[in-house]
């Protein structure tokens, strides 16, 4: 199969497009951006963690810090370690060491040499020839460095020298810093010696990319590829493979010399992206490779910057052999951090890079608002301020009263008013010549919607447009079914999306065009940051949170830095740019909090699987018997449980636990004791004793009596506040029923987040969920316990009050002005307005607006995220769609809704409750003033101030304690218990006798399978029921075993999927009984390994295996292209394994081979080079 590079390589593209273009054509039809600032932008300084390894085992390229850095105050936080200090103008160059200046100059020179790849291949061939002639002693660091026509970095030289000394090496350096060069140099040395090197990656796409890159360096004959889908030149000297492939190879060679195993003549193993060791679902694989690898094989572990590389190097050194650590915190292309608002692009950090730019803080906004009169009186100053672009314009912010200091609602209104549209941020970065950019949006629909939104903007000149058109035409001829028609218009204008919903061929095409400068903006999900070599000048990160199976979660600092690392192209850009964006819920404070949070450590995820247990314990195979005695012929001896335990307990988690656990627990004990002591100092009795000792008897009695009275009045105030809330909630219900006749009333929802920040959301009210007959949302609320309302039977004061008032909460639905759906009880409605959207059909015969919106609400069965909770029910939300966007735009902002329209105040009972609460609040305030005027208040206030100081100290200690507890939980030794539990399931299922280590046929099959639940797959494939299936039906059943994580994603009119045949459905129903038995057995032994069996998508696979074309299958399909392609590839992978599995019926093997052959056709075929 031809590679995409062969399609794109003939395109004429001068290097000036990539290198020297400083002014793309401006965005078509867009206004001028004259308001943007030109003040220099600065980036942050980060300090690397102090290593705990001995000095002679660690190498570092870190330069000595400036004296100024040593004078920083204790406790001052720095942004994460990936970036060193740079001061000065980011747009006019930065100070560098002589080494760096030389390297940058060499990089720039190298980028102008059009024959670089060819000349590097020639240099490698020359070195190999010289080694064959003069011997391996010729190879040294300088010889390997001479392969490159630029000066390699210091950390790269240090790592290469460590390898030449025979050590394994752990390299921890920022993303895009050039770690692959170390592996490439090791491969050059290995090939020159006539030996072999294995290069592992976590992703098939990354393996394919590395395969192409290494073939350019070594030539086709020296490089091979092994993935689940491809096996190309597998006996080559350099073999690229996925980590799971290598782990399975090592199972059969644990404890053997490499000469007697599958690693014959292998000198080195490269573990690229070794920080995947922390991945919950796959991290075990990296640990197993380190544990099982022969000690004479060098390990080259390449990791992004993590907090504990010394622990990783120490662990590998302990179980594998001498290991050296090389760290680098310096990026070849420094990063500048920006923050985008609706009106401007500002530096995120201050000039020292140690804290947030104060012009982005809410305090600054408040100060600006208070000083607005001086700006109003002086129009000249106002105009100068706008020209500088440094002051955020808030005079048009909705709902803000500028005559008083800003309230939380005012600040929230300011933040929401500063949320930029995609076009706003694109304006800003395009005007500053910050393209090309990778724009991270954490949803596929968000990426696609952004491309469609910008289709009217053209980022290409006429020459570039012609080149894209030519490339697109060639791609269409080569892969007609792989063209993503909905994305073509944007692609012609230099805008594209890249996510898991796209076909692999299309994603590779986008990557090629982006690399050639023909795509200026790529909207991508975070998967693009996972090692794919696609650097840009700018990385835009749209928000700091993303959806997960458990709801919306915040990015980790490691994830943020991984994405940020895509910014800055070595040899092309002097500076990389990272742009964080204001959202309705996340501002510059949250961005800096995450940036300064520090890099997270690697955490062991070691868990036992059926494949691991079977391969480690298996001994004799029950395949033949003696005709006379009937005894089993033992082909090899299995490991005992004790021998297996020694291997399992070599996990990274156990190593970290043994060294760190004791110190962490000791510190935690000290903190707990200090908290206990400080808490005893601020009890009521302790404060009372201090007051008695400092005050006279008369002064003490006066304050004590008033304090007791104040406590009583505060309790009454709390009760009145709760009663007022209940009166408000009770008044809402009849108002909603009354006001929705003939219209969809506007409402205001209000809640507080976990940090106490209040949010107000205008929305259009749809109705009570109970009234949505047959609705998916109604069924979801009734059937999901997480939506349960706990007021009935509640023992709290609120519960008693609610029952006394006769209040029975229920769920309602609304569409917010932010184009999000909301589910809520009356608790969260701040007010109801008498105005709303008319509930009248546009034309006679059309559905009413309420019916249309309820249909849209029901259309997507997506995950609901909880914003806040109470015993009166929760407040939930989920994102809307393009179809709901126009409805949300008709929801007015809060300040355009008059107070007179607030129907809530028509309730006399609520009005009376509000007045009672206000009166009590005034009474409490007066009592506080009375206490402040007492004789001994000054001395008493000192006691109170000291108490507050102590409380703050306790809070800090508790925060530290919580961090330590989390760390201890992460490093708790584990693995062996799970191993024993899994082995019991294997024993009782008759796959392996753990007492004699005899491997039964079921276990023999399971040990050879690659999959999430090897035992379950083996049980299915050994079932005779599969023998009567045709090839397409067999493929459909296999698809039901590997469809976990694949989802239906209906979009507009795309709601169709093929149903499986009745034969397939019947077989899956029969297999479900077998699955239930295995699940019961797993539950008995507390094993939680999924057993997938889902017929939902079997019909799609059956249709493909029956010969339907891609266009026929995808017509009105409710699946994304990429999802279906991924399911088909998984199915092909399982089918391709069947002919190679032991003790499988030959007829099934024949059918599986036929099915995999007919399914493996474009456009789902993977690129293999």
List the helices and strands and how they pair.
Layout: H1 4-8, H2 15-19, E1 58-60, H3 67-70, H4 98-111, H5 116-134, H6 141-145, H7 154-164, E2 168-172, H8 180-193, E3 196-201, H9 204-218, E4 223-226, E5 231-232, E6 238-242, H10 243-251, E7 266-271, H11 283-292, E8 298-303, H12 309-319, E9 323-327, E10 335-340, E11 345-347, H13 362-370, H14 372-377, H15 379-388, H16 408-417, H17 422-431, E12 437-440, H18 444-453, H19 462-478, H20 485-492, E13 495-498, H21 504-515, E14 521-524, E15 538-541, E16 545-548, E17 551-554, H22 557-564, E18 576-581, H23 588-595, H24 610-617, H25 641-648, H26 652-681, H27 684-694, H28 697-739, E19 743-752, E20 758-768, H29 776-783, H30 797-805, E21 812-816, E22 820-824, E23 829-838, H31 849-859, E24 865-868, E25 875-879, H32 882-889, H33 908-932, H34 937-971, H35 976-988, E26 992-993, E27 998-999, H36 1001-1008, H37 1014-1021, H38 1031-1041, H39 1062-1084, H40 1098-1105, H41 1110-1114, H42 1121-1137, H43 1146-1159
Parallel strand pairs: 1-9, 2-8, 2-9, 3-6, 3-7, 4-6, 7-8, 10-18, 12-14, 12-15, 13-14, 15-18
Antiparallel strand pairs: 4-5, 10-11, 16-17, 19-20, 19-23, 20-21, 21-22, 22-25, 24-25, 26-27
- Fraction of helical residues: 40-55%
Whole-number mean pLDDT: 78
Characterize the main sheet: 9 strands, mixed
Supply the number of helical segments: 43
Dominant shape: globular
Number of strands: 27
Kindly name the structural category.
Answer: alpha/beta
Terminal-residue CA separation: 8 Å
Q: In what order do the strands lie side by side in the largest sheet?
A: 1-9-2-8-7-3-6-4-5
GO molecular function: ATP binding; helicase activity; hydrolase activity; nucleic acid binding
Coiled coil: 661-723
Region (Disordered): 48-88
Protein name: DExH-box ATP-dependent RNA helicase DExH15 chloroplastic
